[in-house]
Amino acid sequence: MSQSKPTKPAERLLSLDFFRGAIMFLLIAEFTHLFSVMYDPALEGSILYFIGKQFHHHPWNGLRFWDLIQPYFMFIVGVAMPYSLANRKKRGHTNSQITKHAFQRAFILLFLGWALYCIDPGKIEFRFQNVLAQLSVTYILAFLVMNKPAKVQIIFSLLLLALTEVIYRGFPVEGFNHPFIANENFGTWLDLQYGGADLNGHWVSFNAIPTTAHTIWGVLAGQLLMSKRTAMQKLNILIIAGVIGLLVGYALSPVTPIIKRISTSTFVLVSGGWALLTLAFSYWLIDIKKRQNWARFLSVVGLNPLFIYLFAHVGGAIFIESILHPFTFLLFGWMGTLTASILTSAIVLFLLWYICQWLHKHNIYIRI
Fold first, then answer.
1. Rounded CA separation 30/146 (Å)
2. Is the sign of the CA dihedral 276, 155, 93, 364 positive or negative?
């Protein structure tokens, strides 16, 4: 892991920084427990409760906003890959050096994803369901095909979805041959083989295979944005592709349910469609309409995504909250415990953002 300065602002796509920053801002917000506080049963029926509900994963068959965050993350990594590759080539890196770096990066992501599961229990556990472990697979698979023609990349991504359908539907082991029932599917069986099954949350490691499509589609979007097409042509292609993903995904949902916890093909298609449309909106607003000043608030989070995610995940958010708690409850306790908790979480989130702002101000960027 090293410190490096990003490319010059003129070479950057601000909508990419904004999109990535927005996703990271929401991911670190989870560690402040802000969404959990808003989902308090005491608030049921209120707008805060509705928002809080949308920031919790759907228990199984269905889709909430929070179910889109990991696909967004996988997708935006893919969007950044063509830019990163171009910058490395400009610095004189050979293809073998770039490939070596890609595999090293994938290994580090896998190691960090696995290590996070060992911190809380304080013992070695082999689990690979979190975003970093999953990204290590999606990143390297997308990298291996990113220099192929767009048609080849699309076909490869769809073959991964088809493979997932075939394996889940045709898995022959008794007790694990119910593709869309929690803990009775191929994904759970696979994790049981190495002792890393998540029987409570129903997440599976095999998700990395179908969700690789998100990263590949991100690569294609990045290559599109780097192309010589006009801005409106790029925007139209993103919108059309996004709408196709939504239409096909929702149309097939009666056959294959939309389940985020096992990344069904319909879930990948629908969430991929939303990712493309969200990128299209960001590109239209920030790079076409040039509404950029307010976007910089979130962009700074996107400049140090790995650092702030790990910092918040390993206890940074809890540490800040433990320091603030006595003071915020002294100041806001008269407003009620629930309100004081929400305000405390909001202040913790702001301080996490400020850490990113401080790093950006001092030109400190953590890269792997």
1. 32
2. positive
